[in-house]
Fold Ferredoxin.
Amino acid sequence: MRIKVDYDVCEANAVCMGLAPEVFEVDDDDNLNVLLPEPPPELLDRVRHAVRSCPKAALSLEGE
């Protein structure tokens, strides 16, 4: 699985970071950074939850 971000839609609300801080980070300039673009299997449930919870639907999982 690979995380995809539509940066044209993302507002860096940090919902994803709150749900999976090992994978997502919003920096001081309000930019979303994906720390683990291909998260390990043990984090996939949390990443899926973060993708579903994105208020702007800016996240998706490729290969699912």
